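[audit] Reproducing an earlier prediction to check determinism. Same input, same settings, fresh worker. If the tokens differ from the archived copy the diff job will pick it up downstream; this log only records the rerun itself.
[audit] input (147 residues):
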Amino acid sequence: MARVLVLSGPNLNLLGTREPEVYGRTTLDEIHTMLSAAAERRNHQVECRQSNHEGELVGWIGQAGGSFDGILLNPAALAHSSIALRDAVGSVTVPTVEVHLTNVFAREEFRRTLVVAPAVRGVVTGFGPDSYRLGLTALLDMIERAA
């Protein structure tokens, strides 16, 4: 059984009410429930966390080795600016997949630069809440193939 750490960054705790025309009406708790069910169907587990603080996310990533087999990461706005998150992901040996609810490449110019992405195994963007599910599926496939 694999354990996946699901990390969501700043403002994602506001999903469901924050700019629903952009991010939809699905809450982060609903996404976490969907991910738990998807992982359980494959006999795996997820542990879901959210923080509005870059340092806390960096700390969780750094502690993931030995406790988790993979990381599913939505860095939110930090995806465009956080060298610290990029370095944290690059410093751990567990595979990481980055996800985004919206298609960042179809949005404002500043959102088109993903500084964390070069350190991850892959990026899923633009499928709403399904981005998390698709990212989890890809991550679990990688983990299972490596086992």
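[audit] rerun output stored. Observation attached for the diff report: The longest helix spans residues 130-146.
[audit] end
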